[in-house]
């Protein structure tokens, strides 16, 4: 039976707020969805790094149809051509599928999702009728409806969330701030520098700024890059620190990377004090975070890193209160059930905005979970500590249970029909293996003694 939605959840109130601008503009037409899919799904603001120009044929990401309770999707990536994007899409589709299972199918919908770390639709470029694109993040300068990022894939987030409250007390940890990552950030190597281009770019930080700030207090901050880079010349390469070891430090730093950094989600579960850089980017739950309550704020250039750590060390009750508040928020507001309810609320709210009858996209295929899930959803353990580089909870769980580098057993769903032999509801084959087993199925043909797909 579908779980009941809790109307008092702050996440559900945010879902309503995020969709309200399109409600006031008269809803969403099919033309707007097609436009979002072809022009804006992976568009990136040219003032914030490299971008895919509008109307480019490859500027297309995830199109999702939910029809009669069934999930379909159309993508232009694959595990072979882009493992990281493929893993991100798996995470989104798994999250949507889990929300349907938990709360029942929403009315039929046809929508577009972006899996870029950067906001999608600049307000200055979108005009008076901006497309509705679901994305990881937004900013005051962009249009987007925030959708949970890859961290919240059900299997991955459940493993993280179960560890809440199991980490060492703050007083027993190393009383330093930890950060590991790469030198890649949106501003690194930009000419002219970000701060000289436009006023909003001044909110973006070079990773080198963080390294320079930490170098002034090496006894307070264990900060380093895990790969050498020309933009961080002069700083030695440091060993990566797995996410499970982040919980051995009383303080952990969070800064932007090549855009929005989804690593804050993980850090909030570790029971330490997060030192969060001021950022223009906002994820779906960020409006619920309060500086000084759930995290210790840092200036956008990181210049006050040493002073912030020293102040927290000199006031243990304040540090403990911040850590406890972060844990409480993660436990209550960011529970797996709450995240699924938020996704369901977004889908149902979006359905009311549609001014058309959703149809299955000609290239959309039914969602079938893979036989083998990626243990870290494309996030490399070797680069633990950077935005998108952290070691996954799933991998850590596998190691804690004696699995080492093997994939955790709980990531393997029950066996069903293999993808090679699967047919859709119309009886059409989607693979060569299926055609070999069902030679007369739609989509197959016999050529030179072998069955092939049309």
Describe the structure.
It is built from 14 helices and 15 strands. Mean pLDDT is 80; it is low at 380-426 and 447-454. The strands form five sheets. Strands 9-8-10-11-12 form a five-stranded parallel beta sheet. It folds into three domains: 10-149 and 335-368, no CATH class; 159-282 and 286-332, Glycogen Phosphorylase B (Rossmann fold), CATH 3.40.50; 419-453, no CATH class. It is globular. It starts with 9 loop residues before the first helix and ends with a strand. It has helices at residues 10-24, 30-40, 83-103, 123-126, 154-162, 194-197, 207-215, 243-246, 263-267, 305-313, 316-332, 336-353, 393-400, 432-437; strands at 62-67, 70-74, 109-113, 121-122, 134-135, 142-143, 145-146, 174-181, 221-225, 249-254, 273-277, 296-298, 365-366, 444-447, 450-453. Strand 14 (444-447) and strand 15 form a beta hairpin. It has 454 residues and is α/β, with parallel strands linked by helices.
Detail the topology: elements first, then pairings.
Layout lengths: L9 H15 L5 H11 L21 E6 L2 E5 L8 H21 L5 E5 L7 E2 H4 L7 E2 L6 E2 L1 E2 L7 H9 L11 E8 L12 H4 L9 H9 L5 E5 L17 H4 L2 E6 L8 H5 L5 E5 L18 E3 L6 H9 L2 H17 L3 H18 L11 E2 L26 H8 L31 H6 L6 E4 L2 E4 L1
Parallel strand pairs: 5-7, 8-9, 8-10, 10-11, 11-12
Antiparallel strand pairs: 1-2, 1-3, 2-13, 4-6, 14-15
Question: Characteristics of this structure?
Answer:
454 residues, alpha/beta, 3 domains, five-stranded parallel beta sheet, 14 helices, 15 strands, 13% strand, globular
